[in-house]
Amino acid sequence: MVALESRGITPHAAMRRGRVGGAKNTSAQQHKNRPLIAARRRNQERMTSLAYTLSQRARKLSKDAFGWSETIGGMALERYVGRSNIRQQFELAAAEYNLVGMRKLLSG
Questions:
Q1: Among 44, 65, 81, 93, which is 20 to 30 Å from 1 by CA?
Q2: CA distance readout (Å), 96 to 48, 72, 76, 108
Q3: Are 86 and 77 in contact (CB under 8 A)?
Q4: pLDDT for 39
Q5: What is the pTM of this model?
């Protein structure tokens, strides 16, 4: 997270809830991990923002699409050899996913 922030990128990483810094940190460990602890605290503050909520929704949509393409679209195993053939299989699975989405839009 620190490297992203230094480049001016706001990370929206998922993080466990709870105490930041660990339960059993000694003062020497806390001094060594101070930049990481500060980054986790900044991330906790980001998790309450509207932008974080929207990015998590977009993340779920993309995960749904890739999950569908693996399980139903047949992308879990590549059946073909060569980049062009695998790309064609992926594009076909993506087109199928779009058709399923259009069916849901038309019926509802």
A1: 65
A2: 36, 10, 15, 19
A3: no
A4: 81
A5: 0.57
What burial class does residue 27 get, using C-beta atoms within 10 Å of its C-beta: 0-12 exposed, 13-18 middle, 19+ buried? exposed
Question: Are 2 and 35 spatial neighbours (Cβ–Cβ below 8 Å)?
Answer: yes
Angstrom distance (rounded) from CA 29 to CA 44? 21
Residue carrying structure tokens 């059993």: 24
Give 2-42 pLDDT, tens digit per residue.
788 788 888 877 777 767 666 565 565 655 667 777 888 88
Q: Among 41, 48, 55, which residue's Cα sits nearest to residue 12?
A: 55
The C-alpha atoms of residue 104 and residue 83 are separated, in whole angstroms, by 32
| Inter-residue contact 13 to 2 (CB < 8 Å) | no
- Residue predicted with more confidence, 71 or 34: 71
Give residue 7's pLDDT. Answer: 87
